[in-house]
Amino acid sequence: MIETALKALFILLYATFVGFMFMGIIRIVTARVHRRVGPPIYQPILDTLKLLGKKENITHGLIYDFGVIYALGATILALMFIPLGGVGILRAYGDLILITFLLEIPMLGIMFAAMSSGNPWAGLGAQRALLTLLAIQVPLGFAIVALAEFYGTFSTYQIVAAQQAMGWSITHLPLLLAAIAYDLVLQAMFGKEPFDIMIAPGEISLGPMVEFGGKHMGILQIQHAIALFAETLFFANIFLGGAVVTVFASPILNTIASLAILLVKQIAVLLIATLMATIFPRFTIDQAAKFYWKWPTILAALGAVLASL
Amino acid sequence: MNELVVMVIAPLLAGVLAWLLDVRGIKEALGVLGAAVPLGYAAVLYERAGEGINVAYTLGGFQITFALNQLSWFFIGIAALVGFTAVLAMVSTAKSSYEWLFALMSLSGVLGVFLANDLMTFFIFWEIMTFASFMMVLKYNKGASLKYFLLSVFGAYAMLIAIGIIYAKLGTFEFSAVQQAMYRDAYAVMLGGQGLFTKGETALIYLLFIIAFGVKAGAFPLHVWAPDAYSETNQSYTSFFSGALSKAGVYGFILMYILMGAKLTYEFGAFRSTTKFGYIIAFIGGLTIVVGGLLAALQEDIRKLFAYSSISQLGYILVGIGVGTALSMQAALFHALSHALFKGLFFLIVATIVYRTGKTEFKDMGGLAEKMPFTFAMAFIAILSLAGIPPLVGFASKWVLFEAVISQNLPILGGFVFFGSAIGFVYLIRFTYAVWFGQRPTDLDDTKDAPLPMAIAMGILALGNVLFGIAPGLVARELNKIFGREVIGGTLYVLDLGFGKYNALLLTIWLVIGIIIAGIVYFMGAKVRRIPVTDTYQAGNPITMDYNLTIRRNFFLPLKETLAFWLRMSFDRLYRDVGRYVEDLAETLRSYIYNGNVQSYAWYLAIVLLILALWGV
Question: Looking at the complex, does the CB of residue A68 fall below 8 Å from at least one CB of chain B?
């Protein structure tokens, strides 16, 4: 019991910290691409602390508060189910479909909170977010189907274990196709250009986030950090082989080594997304739907069909 | 008198009495009592469903036979529960004793369909159910009811022809006899002998049954009646209409598997890891999910949205049935239960909104969450359940279905079901936004919350959603009993399929922990100040209630534009055109044949005589 609690606390703190570092890395990399110096890497932490420390906050009602809390709670829930090297606490139940769903449900909380504010920009942002979700679901679904059919199991942990024996997922052609499609989907899941249609800074005043300030925004920043961590971790687990290190005698060294390996893989995923985001302008929402229903869908569906043969 | 007969007759009797007496207060009491009897009996007979109960009567030359087994008990349970809550809500919304009569009659019809033990009884109660639901729609909208009636009759007579063919060959209506004969037939053909049914006849029966059950289940492209019929009637009744009546179609498909699964499998062969005839059903189901979901997102009327959503969810059940393994069948049955629970709840919520505001379109609503907090809480549960958010029942059943489909290596169907879950999310948020949040039109300012009977009815269904969600093992245990073996393993809280596991209790606990952690962060911050909905960011401009800031119309316009090409094709329009063509043809025939000219009638006589002469009479 205590051990589980300690593990959970560790995962939570680690994910939050690394997630914030990821947000910092995104800002630095973007700045360097633009030939700027950029903020220090811990800048997002300072931002969040400032937001949480505001002396006055506003609310539009119960759902406005609850939606935000629910979003963070659901993100923490999703995090617990994804195997983190050898540390995962619920990894026996880390089902592919379950995690895919769990990674989406924080959005429900954000939508509820944003919509209850009654702001027209929030409504517009919610509409765009939902259509993006709908657009990415087709390639995402096929990518998950391809994985499940290739490995014959839905357990994320068993998929990681299988990759230790058979090589990374992306070394197999059907799964490589699925991985490319999933990577394109990640761009929208992170909310990065060219698919940051939901937030769309400068176009619709941050969409769903427009009414949030103070501690609500602070909680959403934490949520974003954890979600970044969870999504990259999930990708690294299912496509990049995860990490199960057993070479050292001490379990602590093994854990540290596997966390380090995972971190490198996560940063690789993050960098691809960031570099893509810096060079592409934003799509309109109907372009995004048409794009996702065309190339990534074809790739992922091809992968799924090949995997099922 | 036998329990099964009492169960079937009680609602009808109560309905007739309520109609005859027509006294305020008494008819409501009679109606609720009539719906409570089947529910009570379903509970009492639970223990005995395992051993099976049979009863037979001879009526007008036909054997009327009823049988209760595990499978029919499951469906009876669904129908009795949803029927009871719908009738309870009708206490508030029913306008006349006419509605009591036909609502209860259709409950009798549905129970009869589920309990029938031979094809003739099945057909008779199928017709009672169709007729009663038609009368319910007729009261509100003639056009919608005729559309429903025409398609239903089309389906029912397709079924009648199929039953006729079966009877002509086998000389029996009884399920067990038909089943055995079909088995024997499949074996005979397999061993190179001469079967009773040729391949063509088998295909014909299969096609006729698909039409018959597809109409009731609202499968694409036979779904066009549903949006009109579901919306143009008492919404409390629709809760039963969509929650239980549509399950009759599902039950029909399962019956087809039981009766002639072996024969169909043998005649048409396999497709990948499933059967060819099953794959066709599953594919129709997949199309139904996508079409129903996309159209639901584009509706401007709250009732139409849920009608299409109901179609979409039934597509899942068809996919599960079509894939045809024990696991996918269980998933389909599980989803049938959860669909009844959350869709029954949704239509009660719609009924409450319509009852309290008298409006049905999104453009007239908004900001109701403050005025109807209880109904909103119920809607919140229903939304989470339908969208497939753990730990509610909608997720558990969808999860089993996903795994059942994907583990059979059917990637295209997997893509369909994934898309369906996203589209469910999309149209529900639209409903949430337009009805519950944002500015409230001033004419809704004195809206009250749900009346007590409706609140109780909603509470019962919401409890079911939560209970079966956190303890999906309860349902899995019943489903395993139907198959006589452990298809879905696990405990009360855990579903274990071998290649995937889902622990609802642990998930709930961690969700609560997550929310507590988030709550701690929230409550550590400074106090919040409540501000009105007009005190909001509008590009820095001041605003008043005179501005409409909530997007209520055409919310998914970009989706409409993206799908413009596909939306140009409409089966509704196709059927209308065919209907108009048939009408024109009738008109043409009338004016040419019955032309009022005596000489032409003489000519007809001459032609007939000529034909007879040529025939050599």
Answer: yes
